[in-house]
Structures are given as C-alpha cells and as structure tokens.
Amino acid sequence: MSASRITFLAVATSFTAVASLQSLIIPVLSTIGADLGADAVGQTWMLTAWLISAAVATPLLGRAGDLVGRRRMYLLALGAVAVGSLLSAFAPNLTVMLFARVLQGLGAAVFPLGFGLVRDAFPPARLAGAIGGLSAIMAVGSGLGTVIAGPVSAVIGWRGLFALPLVLAATGLVLGWFGLARSTTRATGRINVLAAVLLSGWLVALLLPLSSGNQWGWGSPIVLSLFVVAAILAAAWVAVELRSRNPLVDMKIMRLPAVWTTNATALLTGAAMFGVWAYLPRLAETPTSSGYGLGVDASTAGLIMLPMLVTMASVGFVAGPLSRVLPFAAQLTLGAFLSALASLGIAFLHDNVWTLAAAAAVLGLGTGLVTSSTPNLIVRSVPADQVGIATGMNANIRTIGGAIGTTVFAAAIGATLGAAGLPAESGYVAAFVIGAVLALVGGLVPFFGRSRPVRPEARAIPVIESPLEELAEAA
C-alpha cells in the first residue's frame, strides 16, 4: 500500500472518531445526566468542556504541527481522544466525565493536522479529491452521533456509545504510528506565547457565554462581562499578531480574499448547520399534543437524519472531480444556498416524516459541498508552512458559528415556551428561518472576494481523481 493511501486511511479514521464526538452525546444528554447525577447546568458543561477544549487546541496544536512536525502532534491529539473515550465510558461521576470531555476536545486538532499530512503526502493532481473526501468524512462523522445515539444507547446503553470513537482512535493511532511519514515542510520560528494566551483567552471568554447564556441569563453581569473581556482580548491578540516577528496566526494570510471570505462563510453556514442538526430531531420528537410535532422516538428521529449522511458523503467524495466544471468557490456558494433551502423547507413543511427526511437530504447536499470546498480553498490559498494554523482557524471559526447557531435557535424556540413546557410552532419556524438567512448570507459572502491561490503552483492543480479509489485499494 502506498504512503499516500495509508495517510488517507489513517486521517479518515481519525476524522470520523473526533467528528462523532461533537454530536454523540447530545441525543442522550439527559440520560447521562441522570446516571451521573448532573443537573441541567452540569449537562451543558459536558458539551461546553468539549467545545472550549477543541477551540483552544485546534489552532495551537495545528501551529505546533507546522513548527515541530504534524505527525507528532497528530499522534498526541489522537491519543487524547482514545484516553478520553475510555474514561467517558467508565466515568463514575460528572467530574471524571468533564475531564474526559476535555481530553476528547484536544482531538479536534487532528483536523488541521490531518489536512497538512495529506497535503504533504499527495501529489497536486490528487490533492483536491483527497481533501474533498476527508471533508465529507468529517461532516458525516459530525452528524453520525445524532443518527446512531438513540438506537445504540437503547440497545447497549449510553456508555457503549464511546466504543466507536475509542476503536476508531486506536485504529488511527496504529496506522499513524507505522504509516505516517514525518513532515518535511516545517515553519520556522517558535510559538508566540503571548499570542497563544490571548487567543485562548478570547476564545474561552466568547464560548462560555455563548454556550451557557440560556442558563445564566443573557443580561446577567457574568455574560455581559465575558463578552466585553472577549472583545478586549481579541483586539489585544490582533495587535500582538500584527507586531510580532513570529505570529501565531499570520494576519496577512487571514486577510487574503480566498481566506477571509471562506472563513466568513464557514461562520455563517456553521451557525445554520449546527442549529438545524440540534433542533430538527427535537422538532420531530415534539409530542403530537402540541398540534405540530410528530411525536417520534429518538431512534426514528435519527433515521430522519440518515438521508443527510448519505447525501453529505456522496457529494463530498465527488467534489474534487466536480471542481473541473464547478470551481470550489461556486460549490461553496451553491452549498450554502442548498442549506438555506433545506432550512426553509423544515420551517414550513414539517407535517410528516418524509418531508423532514427530504429536507435533511437537501441539507446533506449543501453541507457536503460547503465542508468539502472550504478546506480546499484554504489549503490551496496559503503557503505549505501555514496549512495547520490556517485550517485550524477555519475549523475554529466554524465551531464558533456552531455555538452561535445553537444559541440563536435555543433563544428563538425557548422564547415561545407555553404552560405545558412545550414551545409554540412559531418558535421553530422562526429558528429555521433564521438558519436559512444565515446560510443565504454565507453563500453571498464569496462574491465580496476573489478565491485565488497565493502560490503559483496551486493554480495548476488539476482535479481528476476521487478518494474512493484510495479507500477501495486500502481495503
């Protein structure tokens, strides 16, 4: 088996493991909380701990990989996922579970590290197809938890859910240890400690109120104070980066039209995507007594989401060859528009399982195009020694968008709670319309910048192969 195929298989396995942890516990959060004695705040922290850990680790370990070697950082991040998954499966209390979720969050760094490893291992003619395939796998993994959590936990319990990321992480570690080559392209300099502290600080200060604002109250002093702190630290971080000889994030790279427009679209479509993922199953599970809900169980709600995974994977694997006739920038816009259409469909056509499943299928098409085109635009637009930090920041921006999206959806739906504890139909309609607007605006953003590579050789990258061949031969 060639080195490029081993690299693709190792990275694909790790992407599935880490991405699944984003949504794996959401459908069974209340069940886990009951077993571990965690109230609503404690349950929220199971999600927040992963979110903050991932947000901090993704750019920092991505940059460390650019400097000291991506293989080394990749193995470290994936090892944290394996240990965290094992601890989660046997967690006796909330404290251990939160520590395990922090370890799992460190694994989010495999996304920028994995894209960098693939760029090192693949020739230009096959690079775009490989990145598109990995992006599809990452997106499918993110939605996988929503689909399988209900049925799997019903059979073997919620602790058994962590067997999937544990086995995948262990497999990725073995493949990575024996099959990944050490990075030959490395950045020079060192990690700017002050910039790293400021970056971590504003990410934590921003994500804490976004994820816990519903419990703390949006007008509470702690929420308002954290937003102010986040703004101050973010401004200080940018000032430090602009003056640094060894910036953690090169602001010249971030200002490139292909980069900033792609990041802006990632923020907006991420908000729409994660909001729909979180609340489409809840809409379907709403009791029929509400007058609009379908009253399905968690397993059926997961099956409604299944078409999304199928279309998402399908379009992701053909995004590379498709770019010969539809450039990645156009794919990004089309994907955002399809996501907006799906969200509108859910808002106004949710009276039966089949219409929701059809909307989920369209959402999968849109999400697949967005997630496969985004890293391709970033990777082909930045120098080789900036791939880790550039893709890491893009993943972080999508994460921030996801936190914003779920918060906005929760606020719109929660504002219509009735005496019976059920939200009004108008709350769901408003939330999904907001999701559609976010995705629509995200699709328009690329028109404000030109997606051009900064490296002359990147312009000549032909897109002629699909990573399906890599998977077939690897198997």
UniProtKB/TrEMBL annotation:
InterPro entries: MFS, MFS_dom, MFS_trans_sf. It comes from the Bacteria. Keywords: Membrane, Transmembrane, Transmembrane helix, Transport. PROSITE patterns: MFS. Its main location: membrane. Residues 6-454 form the Major facilitator superfamily (MFS) profile domain. One of its GO terms (molecular function) is transmembrane transporter activity. The chain crosses the membrane at residues 45-62, 74-92, 98-118, 130-156, 162-181, 193-212, 218-240, 260-280, 300-320, 332-350, 356-379, 400-422, 428-449. GO terms for cellular component: plasma membrane. It is found in: Cell membrane. Gene3D superfamilies: MFS general substrate transporter like domains, Multidrug resistance protein D. It is a multi-pass membrane protein. This is MFS transporter. It comes from Agromyces mariniharenae.
